[in-house]
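Quick one before lunch.
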Amino acid sequence: MLTLDRLSCGYGSVQAAHDVSLHVTKGSIFALLGPNGAGKTSTIMAVMGHIDIQGGSILLEGADITKRRAIDRVRLGVALVPEGRQLFSDLTVDENLTVGGYAFPASSDAAKRERVFSYFPRLYERRNQMSGSLSGGEQQMLAIGRALMAEPRLLLVDELSLGLMPKMVDLCLDALLALKREGLTIVLIEQNTARALDVADQVCVLSSGLQVYQGTAAEAKAAGSMFAKFLGMGDEVAPG
Ligand SMILES: Nc1ncnc2c1ncn2[C@@H]1O[C@H](COP(=O)(O)OP(=O)(O)OP(=O)(O)O)[C@@H](O)[C@H]1O
Ligand SMILES: [Mg+2]
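Model of the magnesium ion complex:
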């Protein structure tokens, strides 16, 4: 579904990720892990077309999209759930969903909205509420729902669990697993390594902009504290 071939990206003279190469299989969940400042957000921002690409290429289902505009990438089926959710806090749940579908004809809005509400019934109950007054977990559901309004084939999720209660993390991860069963491909950036490895098929670790580990989630789990070292963590937080 997605191939990064020696991708380097950054901000002017700052390089945030260097020579990242990875292959995300269609219908899988790919976890992108690593410590703060590793280049995780920058990598998916490059996939969205939001930051400078300094080298290498991005292929979506084999087609080179490296030079495509961000809006074209959305239309080709790439959507983002951004770090910090970035909702329009003074718009309602319904209005935020409308924004998510902006690149597409309004005629199909109702069906897409129904689909979002089927994953997140709470959003239906709160559809006329200002998004700024939702709980953190509900806001994350809305951020996912807003991305789904673009009917993506590839969903990029940045920091799903950050600041959420475990029950809310469960609800959001369950939704991602249900979406995967329907064929969606997901790249998941997560600080909660253990939860990420529970749902992911493949995993890649970035550190200081470099790719330091790549393998299956099962292999990463089996590696335990050895794997935790790639994340710059002590043994006490080893996954599994
Ligand atoms: N807007 C920006 N301008 C300049 N440098 C930036 C900008 N955003 C990020 N960087 C730098 O790029 C590098 C990678 O940052 P990035 O946000 O991609 O890391 P991350 O892995 O997502 O970290 P975190 O876990 O803290 O979210 C860091 O050195 C950071 O300082
Ligand atoms: Mg980040």
